[in-house]
Amino acid sequence: MEKFLHFHLLISILVVLGNANSLSPLNSTYIMQTRKRFMSIDPTKLPDPPMPSYTFTVHHRDVFEKSKFKDYDSLLENRFARCYARASYLASVLESQDGETTPQLVPKSTDIFYGSGEYVASFLIGSQMTKNYLLLDTGSDLIWWQCGPCEANKCYKQDQPLYDSTVSKTFRIIGCNHHGNKCRIVNPAYYCNLENFQCRYDMHYGDNSQTKGFIADDVITFLVGHWSSRVTFGCSKDQTGELNFTSFASGIVGLGRDLTDGYSLPSQFGGNLMSMCLPSFDSGKGSVLSFQTSKWPRAKSAELLFNYRYPSFYFVNIYKVFINDREVPVSPSWWNFNGPMMNGGMFVDTGTSYTAFPHDFYTVFRYIFREEVNDIPMAEIPVQPFDTCYKEDPNGRDLYFPVVKLYFGSVNSSTMLFLAQQRVVVHYRGLYCLAFVGWNSERSVLGMAQLQGVGLTFDTVASTLSFDIDACD
Ligand SMILES: *[C@@H]1O[C@H](CO)[C@@H](O)[C@H](O)[C@H]1NC(C)=O
Ligand SMILES: *[C@@H]1O[C@H](CO)[C@@H](O)[C@H](O)[C@H]1NC(C)=O
Ligand SMILES: *[C@@H]1O[C@H](CO)[C@@H](O)[C@H](O)[C@H]1NC(C)=O
After folding, report:
1. Entry's PANTHER family (predicted)?
2. What is the pLDDT of residues 326-370, one digit of tens each?
3. Which one of 209, 234, 448, 452 is CB 3.0 to 4.6 Å from 280, fit for a cystine?
4. Structurally, how many domains does the chain consist of?
């Protein structure tokens, strides 16, 4: 019996270590070195290898923004603020739709901040192949970029060269003067201007950042094989909201779930497959976003659920959550959508940094996490926005925190997302904090701190979202 126990323990330790090695070790010397290296990356010299068709290079936004901050902790603070802003934005989108019959992606209320996104992809646009970075957003359905020539003060300052539609030889306007064309009035953000038959949009992003323009198309180029593809996009002419969009990105790529007749990139590329690996926050490395293909084995999968109230969001069938081998005790049915408002459930959002759970669930989750932490002193005063923080080892030795296992649909190794190390805790101001938050919503958001470095394959025909740990090269 004793022998068996030892054997079992050894296996568990090996499993934990095997997975724990995946990200950098949790020792302060190592983390400081990694961050120092990260802070010294020159964002004007990022590798942007030639990409095959339907594939784009992806970077974390911190690579571009770090020069504005005095140190990595200040950069983190900005990320926390964005996470909060994004949560409020999502809440506004979700709540504004409650009680309405037509789904829409534009929040009604305009007094809410919007965090805009964590990752950018690099695009070569038009016949001039203008290189622009666009923010990835799984929560919206339009791809748009600033479209010159700009009228005075209508465009925000952008770091990349401005795309000019009058210079691009492949640019075409899409009007709304005949049936069967690509002008789709899918929600109130889109309309036909009957005076000049311009197919127009007016997207409000909560905080009064706003973009207006008209629908057009142009080619984007993938350098491998000199292959190009025509893309319907928002030619954005007026971005004069109260808050400017961020200068390192020239627009937003809506990656919302394939809607028939939508403008989102997945629906345009006709593929049912979208795959991406979003690089870990402080690696500074680029990774890929691909359509129609995935280069990962798709070892573990969740089911993608369709929520008719929020058709472009990627909901997943979360079933049970474990911390080490202890289950967070809620009935699996607790996660189901409930009521006509389709409350509850969990969706994946590339614009949210830290996974958010409903407060009641989070409280139990946190309680078990604290019980499962061994021999690491807790910090009396945690650092906002977190409430469960631990002191780093005074000798800088590696620390091991409990692992978090998310199961989708059933308890089976093939449906498990295994989270360890930096996917569970974040190092901030000399503390390690549990990198999850509780929020005032019945819905949960699976965020990027948890999915950093995980290969994600969205398959809308098989209705699966697959997870491959440590897939970024
Ligand atoms: C937004 O950008 C414009 C043009 O660069 C600038 O004039 C304006 O002051 C900016 N607004 C804010 C709130 O930063
Ligand atoms: C921290 O991690 C690095 C990289 O694995 C290792 O070389 C170093 O010895 C560790 N430091 C301590 C004090 O354990
Ligand atoms: C786990 O999932 C695999 C693949 O779907 C299946 O073959 C296997 O029977 C499942 N195991 C259990 C215990 O349900």
Report:
1. ASPARTYL PROTEASES (PTHR13683), PROTEIN ASPARTIC PROTEASE IN GUARD CELL 2-LIKE (PTHR13683:SF891)
2. 999 999 889 998 888 788 899 998 888 899 999 999 999 999 999
3. 452
4. 1
Q: Is 387 exposed, middle or buried (0-12, 13-18, 19+ CB in 10 A)?
A: middle
Going by alpha carbons, the residue nearest to atom 4 of ligand 1 is 156
In the three-class reduction of DSSP (H, G, I as helix; E, B as strand; rest coil), residue 322 is classed as: strand
Q: Which residue puts its alpha carbon closest to atom 5 of ligand 3?
A: 414
SS3 143: strand
Q: Which strand ranges, in their side-by-side order, compose the sheet holding 318-323?
A: 326-327, 318-323, 404-408, 416-419
440 CB less than 6 Å from ligand 2? no
For residue 99, pLDDT over 70 is answered with no
Residue 447 lies in a domain: yes
Active-site annotation, residues:
137, 349
CB 141 within 8 A of CB 262: yes
Q: Please compute the mean of the pLDDT values over residues 378-384 and round it to a whole number.
A: 86
Cβ neighbors of 413 (< 8 A, separation 6 or more) are 300
Nearest to 300 by CA among 405, 403, 417, 423: 417
Return the pLDDT at 234.
Answer: 94
State yes or no: cis peptide before 382, omega within 30 of 0. Answer: no
Asked if residue 344 belongs to a domain, the reply is: yes
* Ligand approaching nearest to the C-alpha of 21: 2
Tokens of 256: 């919302």
pLDDT per residue as tens digits for the range 256-277: 886 666 788 888 887 789 999 9
Atom index in ligand 1 nearest the CA of residue 244 equals 1
The beta-strand segments (E) located in 239-359 are: 251-254, 273-277, 287-291, 300-305, 314-316, 318-323, 326-327, 346-348, 355-358
| Strands 355-358, 198-205: pairing kind | unpaired
Determine which residue's CA is closest to atom 7 belonging to ligand 3.
Answer: 414
- Residue 374 sits at φ, ψ, to 5 deg, of -110, 130
**What CATH number does residue 105 fall under?**
2.40.70.10
How many Cα atoms sit within 13 Å of 292 on the Cβ side?
A: 10
Which protein residues touch ligand 1 with a CB less than 6 Å away?
153, 156-157, 244
Any domain includes 136 = yes
- Enclosing domain of residue 441: 14-468
Q: For all residues of the chain together, what is the average pLDDT? A: 84
Ligand 3 closest atom vs CA 411 = 14
Atom of ligand 2 nearest to the CA of 395: 13
